[in-house]
């Protein structure tokens, strides 16, 4: 039986992504006879560590949101547990609901949610509930437990979470940008995958040389390979010293990608390849 | 009188940076006859907006931490209020203290701090106070008020904050990485500055072309200009559409930088130059 770690508790967007992957699993793995089981973990680094240490087979974690940008904990943990390979990418649309027993917006005194969800609704909150105090929580569902006890409280979570907690939704969607979605990665210790539309890698650059970043990037451009994303993270050694995470629109099995990866070795300090994978929308 | 916005309340690292800049001000501006006054603001975007709308003369805001990486709110707000220019950069060492009335670490049940400070001490906390619940707050000093009421509570903040609140420090430093520092920018509406060791700019790339990012970066490499930093942020239009923030190690007044900036125009969609400035350590 395949076990999949995700950031719990029940009702989070991460669980919605895990459920979506669970539903896709039989199509992606027709040889498998059982449906995977989902295992909630208290944080993203712990879910990733569980997959790296074989407590579970896979971890599904958010990588990037279209409004908030990269999920730095996921990138930092993957750099640390670099034996993990990306099995699949998944894009989930995010729609935030205001969940409360209040009858009108004017009755709401406090709004609870995860800091990212509060940030994604900040203009809506300023316009429609300017009187409310905004209180950050560890997950989008944490606030729902208190909402049931007091009708002056509200939480921001998904419509699905509201239904799970049997609580009413007063407004939905309330996210400031309608085109809000989050990309997830499914990580596991299986051998490097070479098929798929995208490949992810990361490298630390050779320091303080003009072109230390440009030369590695030029390798891809010279071969006509499109970069779909670049994100820098500190190496934590000193200010100004970075790891670059790069997604390219090509598979490792293509000969010109093999050539590019060979050319990268002398231009980088440490180079890590996280495999090729497809994206499920 | 020069008024400077910063992220309050009193006792935060942002205030320490503002005080450092206040002390430097007479040396940087010998023509000025009065010392600048400091004005606390409730968030980074509000401090930046105050400078852009001339409520204050300057805003001092964190840009990047050596462990946690870029401060996305600062980059997103600067892209929005792009008439602002960087006047000065400032690097502040960060040393976190565990502030509590508890006599031993084993007595501590809850640790309060800003999520970034909790993250920067996570290994120390797991090792020395594994029993404690970690509670995020809006600023590093917010937890200090409750710490004075109950000896089972602790807060993570600076030694300076402990002294301001007349509270004892049980352990210091407790940050996981000794070389922890934060870079700040001083922003203002003064005419573009052209002198200094560094120049910052940002651009949105022409979409989905191989080399859309490499070509602008090559402009600098070809002229031997070192990039000291690159950070991508979502444009918030759709997933996969980015703004790139770049710091170069050269001044706008140098002719080859002028040449590079001219060459960039046809290679980018929107290009914004935030001026040249020096870095105070």
Automatic annotation (TrEMBL), chains A, B:
It catalyses: prephenate + H(+) = 3-phenylpyruvate + CO2 + H2O. This is Prephenate dehydratase. Transmembrane segments: none annotated. It is an enzyme of class 4 (lyase). SUPFAM superfamilies: ACT-like, Periplasmic binding protein-like II. One of its GO terms (cellular component) is cytoplasm. Residues 3-189 form the Prephenate dehydratase domain. InterPro entries: ACT-like_dom_sf, ACT_dom, Chor_mutase/pphenate_deHydtase, Preph_deHydtase, Preph_deHydtase_CS. Pfam families: ACT, PDT. It comes from Tumidithrix elongata BACA0141. The gene is pheA.
């Amino acid at each position: 039986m395949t076990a999949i770690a995700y950031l719990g508790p029940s009702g989070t967007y991460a669980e919605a992504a895990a459920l979506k992957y669970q539903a896709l699993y039989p199509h992606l793995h027709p040889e498998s006879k059982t449906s995977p089981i989902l295992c909630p973990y208290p944080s993203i680094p712990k879910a990733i560590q569980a997959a790296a240490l074989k407590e579970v087979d896979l971890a599904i974690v958010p990588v990037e949101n279209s409004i908030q940008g990269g999920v730095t904990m996921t990138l930092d943990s993957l750099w640390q547990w670099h034996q993990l390979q990306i099995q699949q990418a998944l894009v989930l649309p995010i729609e935030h609901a205001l969940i409360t027993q209040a009858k009108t917006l004017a009755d709401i005194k406090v709004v609870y949610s995860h800091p990212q969800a509060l940030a994604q609704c900040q203009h809506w909150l300023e316009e429609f509930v300017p009187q409310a105090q905004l209180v950050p929580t560890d997950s989008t569902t944490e606030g729902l437990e208190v909402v049931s006890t007091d009708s002056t409280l509200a939480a921001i979570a998904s419509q699905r979470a509201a239904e799970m907690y049997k609580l009413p939704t007063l407004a939905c969607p309330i996210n400031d940008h309608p085109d809000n979605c989050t990309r997830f990665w499914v990580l596991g210790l299986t051998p490097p995958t070479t098929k798929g539309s995208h490949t992810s890698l990361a490298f630390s650059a050779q320091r303080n040389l003009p072109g230390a970043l440009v030369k590695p990037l030029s390798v891809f451009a010279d071969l006509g390979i499109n970069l779909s994303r670049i994100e820098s993270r500190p190496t934590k050694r000193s200010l100004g010293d970075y790891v670059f995470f790069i997604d390219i629109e090509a598979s490792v099995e293509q000969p010109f990608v093999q050539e590019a990866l060979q050319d990268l070795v002398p231009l980088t300090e440490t180079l890590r390849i996280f495999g090729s994978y497809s994206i499920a929308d």
